[in-house]
Design a protein that fits this description.
The protein has helices at residues 25-30, 56-59, 68-80, 92-104, 118-135, 156-161, 165-168, 187-190, 206-214, 240-251, 272-276, 303-309, 329-344, 347-363, 394-405, 427-442, and strands spanning 35-39, 42-45, 50-53, 109-115, 143-147, 178-181, 219-224, 254-258, 282-285, 297-302, 371-377, 380-385, 408-409, 411-413, 416-419. By secondary structure, it is an alpha/beta fold. The structure holds pyridoxal-5'-phosphate. The site of pyridoxal-5'-phosphate has 14 residues, from helix 5. Residues 117-119, 122, 151-153, 225, 229-230, 258, 260-261, 286 line the site of pyridoxal-5'-phosphate (PLP).
Length: 445
């Protein structure tokens, strides 16, 4: 007999029940945008249209969609071992996966803590920083420094060190003891920069200011994205990150690079840290770690931080932290297969080859209506619009919908359209992508 559920009147495809994340739910549900399939560079919509993926899903599908090697590895894994925890137990894939990850990490990063998302990686990194200082006898080092316009996910730690007002204001008071550096976005001096802008390295000295204000002995860590992507692609000024790293080293402040987007080849090097020639203390990752095929995150930690916590009796748990799904077998299988694809196809450095072509292509949109800045780095581009009077963000959202209707997925954030296609993109596809953007921008009101 069919037992009726209380809500059995709801249609199977009713849009109402799903409270969508970071979405204008009521607007979306009046005119939904749905994908039903994907392959390599393209999605397919529910009305059968092919849409080029100009944003690697949500900055995660670095090797393109539905790669057979990754899909097959995940299928095999599910047939073999669906779940095994990693609390006081283990399974081989988690260890293999961690070893593979540290092999491609920048020098010195020889330990990995698994999470399930960028947000969890960030909160894990902040907790490791606090625990590290305490273990070293510096229990007073508790302040966390973020940066205006930074995005570090949505958990309470990440929201607190994050610097996007709209993401913070609903959830006050957030964590105590947090402060922020100024952001580096400077249209007045740096508009239409190609790659790293010339001006603004001195903004790193904000950290000196905060160190004087709070006393460095109270500051545990600084967290920044090497390139602040979610807030409109803010490329760091030349020399800024090195200067920040030097100030951190001087004051014994841990430097955390949030590489949830920049890790795994987006800039043309395996990690942003290598691209910028800076060695932070902790690196947070997620997204491209499994090519977006299943949730996973990883926090990379240098040995001295790890070892500082490997003290006390051997039967004591050293770090009271972890997730049920830390090192989930399916995610580990996907990650290992993803790393194979990245290696076999040279994807962790391919963006470096494409970057000059990409830069020319993106900057060819200069001069189109309302465009006040174009930025690029690696295989990332951004087009910023003059805000529509009294309606910030509206222009970019309209362009995003028009691009989608013209067969291209882009990401609107504030008054900026961000572009970050899969790293497998070919030059003719870059031309196609930019061609669609040009048409969309030309017809803009
Ligand atoms: C730099 C950065 N940190 C953290 C996150 C949060 O990741 P997730 O959405 O997987 O929690 C993101 C997501 O875009 C990000 O770009």
């Amino acid at each position: 007999m069919n037992v009726p559920f209380p809500d059995n009147k709801r249609k199977a495809n009713d849009l109402d029940a799903f409270w969508m994340p970071f979405t204008a739910n009521r607007q979306f549900k009046k005119a939904p945008r749905l994908f039903v399939a994907a392959d390599r560079m393209h999605y397919v919509t529910d009305d059968g249209r092919r849409v080029m993926d100009g944003t690697s899903g949500l900055w995660c599908v670095n090797a393109g969609h539905r790669r057979p090697q990754i899909v097959a590895a995940m299928r095999r894994q599910l047939d073999e071992l669906d779940f095994a925890g990693t609390f006081q137990m283990g399974h081989a894939k988690a260890f293999e996966c961690a070893s593979r990850l540290v092999n491609i990490a920048p020098p010195g990063f020889d330990h990995v803590f698994f999470t399930n998302s960028g947000s969890e990686s960030v909160d894990t990194a902040l907790k490791i920083a606090l625990a590290y200082h305490r273990a070293n006898g510096n229990a007073g080092k508790v302040r966390l420094i973020g940066r205006e316009r930074g995005y570090h996910g949505v958990n309470l730690g990440g929201t607190s060190v994050g610097g996007i007002g709209a993401n913070r204001k609903m959830f006050a008071p957030l964590l105590a003891g947090v402060d922020h550096l100024r952001h580096t976005h400077d249209l007045f001096r740096n508009a239409f920069s190609r790659g790293e802008p010339e001006h603004g390295a001195e903004l790193a000295d904000d950290l000196e200011r905060l160190a004087i204000l709070h006393d460095p002995s109270t500051i545990a860590a600084v967290i920044v994205e090497p390139v602040a992507c979610s807030t409109g692609v803010l490329v760091p000024p030349k020399g800024y990150l090195k200067r920040l790293a030097a100030i951190c080293a001087k004051h014994g402040i841990l430097l955390i690079f949030d590489e949830v987007i920049t890790a795994f080849g987006r800039l043309g090097a395996p990690f942003g840290a290598e691209y910028f020639g800076v060695s932070p203390d902790i690196i947070t990752t997620a997204k491209g770690i499994t090519n977006g095929a299943v949730p996973m995150g990883a926090v990379f930690v240098k040995r001295p931080i790890h070892d500082a916590l490997m003290t006390g009796p051997e039967d004591a748990i050293e770090l009271a932290h972890g997730y049920t799904y830390s090192g989930h077998p399916l995610a580990c299988a996907a990650c290992i297969a993803t790393l194979d694809v990245y290696r076999e196809e040279g994807l962790l450095t391919r963006a470096a080859e494409l970057a000059p072509y990409w830069e020319e292509a993106v900057h060819s949109l200069k001069g189109l209506p309302h465009v006040i800045d174009i930025r690029n780095i690696g295989l990332i581009g951004a087009i910023e619009f003059e805000p529509a009077p009294g309606a910030p963000g509206k222009r970019a959202h309209a362009r995003f919908v028009e691009a989608l209707n013209s067969g291209l997925l882009v990401r609107a954030t504030g008054d900026t359209i961000a572009l970050a296609p899969p790293l497998i993109i070919e030059k003719r596809e870059i031309d196609e992508l930019i061609g669609v953007m040009r048409k969309v921008l030309q017809s803009a009101d």
